[in-house]
Sequence to fold (228 residues):
Amino acid sequence: MSNRLFGRKKGYPIKQEKKKKFNYIFPKLNLNLESVKNKDIFSKFPSTADTFFLEVGFGSGEHVKWQLENNPKTGIFCCEPYINGVVNLISSLKEKYYNRIRITMDDAELLVDILPEKSISKIFILFPDPWNKKKHFKRRFINEKTISKMSKVMKDDGEIRISTDSSSYVAWILHHFLNSNEFVWEAKSKKDFLCKPLDWVQTRYEKKAISSGKIPIFLIFKKEKNKQ
Fold:
């Protein structure tokens, strides 16, 4: 059984104007995982795109938008199971970025399964559901299997960036990555995981964590050369 991004597919009501834009635009950006299995998954991107990112669970899309705006030669695959998040991203996305983004609401692991080896430069997993109850740990996206799968699709020296405000999840993430032998955590001091790089834009989930008195943790794992 594949590891799924568990959760409600729909939250608050969606305004009619946003619904209309979603119904018109989403089919153009939707990445149908079944139809691309035996095709070139990069064929929908412009020839100028020479770098590719993956974002797992993009929330309202602030981070995806920033990456598109600041990396003009980058194509982005992104996964989000909640229709509200997808609607919010599409409603605020400029048309000039449509050809450099592909969205799926399917299982993120299924997308990783069909990505070519050594094709992705960065993977972002920002404030994923921590599933803090022990009986729900199996629902966490990050585990031994998904780390191995992500390693296969990442270029040498590629990065996986993860943020969370859950101390339990931080311990879980570090345990699994440090025991994988496929990635290196280069943090040397607290500053390295309490402060983020300039190209790591703040999302509403980070703002929410800070406003509630929680301390966000920012983890960067680099793919070791010649692994996988």
Notes: The domain at 16-33+51-223 is CATH 3.40.50.150 (Rossmann fold). Residues 1-8 have pLDDT under 50 and may be disordered. The first strand starts at residue 51 and ends at 56.
